[in-house]
């Protein structure tokens, strides 16, 4: 493993990632975060000055668990993931728009994209740290926080299924127009990530591409505590 995170991101096989996104709608990432980095993120869960907002999921009927949105400036590794994953995803996002007959709208760098969010009044950072204890779960949802949104997001597993918790699989459900929905269950090992669509993806049909709608969530944690790191690219109002 390269010793710093930007290097590890630069070494990703983005051609394979693009192929997987095109074919399946999602792409697994190798362990970009090492065990020490995962541990440091988890240990900082109680370090309140790092976060702007804490959400008790049950209060909003989002599920059972808790998450915290990081405050600016983001911790270095969170900023590096957000900045480093954005450009390749923006290319796919623009290409996907083309498949649906729309023009490219996503600028090449995260800073340009965030400038657009900020101009639209979306100024609060959205990367988040999630914690689910036994009985915890996350209902199927989409992470949209205003008119400006980026069509991909990433999630990273910070601890290890079967060692630290059981259950708690990542769920991705694809709703096809006028057809039954399809579900994917994705289990990540500690430090591994997943790229997936925030809202839609193009799928080839008999008369060109059509859009399916995606929602994600987490199945019930049956024992232990599960931690994950969510990287959402658009900021929130
Ligand atoms: O905990 C998870 O794996 C899912 C978190 C989530 O909903 C997100 O990152 O947007
Ligand atoms: Fe989410």
Automatic annotation (TrEMBL):
Keyword match Cell membrane: no
Single GO molecular function: metal ion binding
Domain Fe2OG dioxygenase, chain residue ranges per copy: 123-236
InterPro entries: DUF2086, Oxoglu/Fe-dep_dioxygenase_dom
Keyword entries, A-Z: Iron, Metal-binding, Oxidoreductase
A Pfam cross-reference name: Oxygenase-NA
Family per similarity comment: Belongs to the iron/ascorbate-dependent oxidoreductase family.
Protein name (record): Fe2OG dioxygenase domain-containing protein
Protein species of origin: Paenibacillus endophyticus
């Amino acid at each position: 493993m390269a010793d710093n995170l930007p290097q590890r991101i630069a070494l990703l096989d983005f051609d394979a990632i693009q192929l997987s996104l095109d074919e399946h709608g999602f792409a697994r990432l190798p362990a970009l975060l090492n065990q020490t980095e995962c541990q440091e993120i988890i240990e900082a869960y109680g370090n309140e000055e790092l976060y702007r907002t804490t959400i008790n999921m049950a209060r909003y009927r989002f599920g059972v668990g808790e998450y915290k949105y990081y405050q600016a400036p983001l911790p270095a590794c969170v900023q590096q993931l957000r900045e480093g994953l954005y450009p390749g995803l923006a290319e796919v996002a623009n290409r996907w728009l083309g498949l649906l007959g729309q023009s490219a709208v996503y600028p090449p760098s995260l800073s340009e994209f965030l400038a657009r969010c900020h101009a639209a009044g979306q100024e609060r950072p959205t990367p988040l740290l999630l914690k689910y204890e036994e009985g915890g779960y996350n209902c199927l949802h989409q992470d949209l926080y205003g008119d400006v949104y980026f069509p991909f997001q990433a999630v990273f597993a910070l601890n290890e299924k079967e060692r630290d918790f059981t259950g708690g699989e990542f769920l991705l459900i694809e709703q096809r127009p006028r057809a039954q929905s399809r579900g994917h269950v994705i289990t990540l090992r500690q430090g591994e990530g997943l790229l997936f669509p925030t809202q839609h993806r193009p799928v080839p049909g008999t008369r060109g591409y059509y859009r399916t709608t995606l929602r994600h969530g987490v199945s019930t944690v049956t024992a232990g505590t599960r931690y994950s790191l969510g990287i959402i690219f658009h900021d929130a109002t």
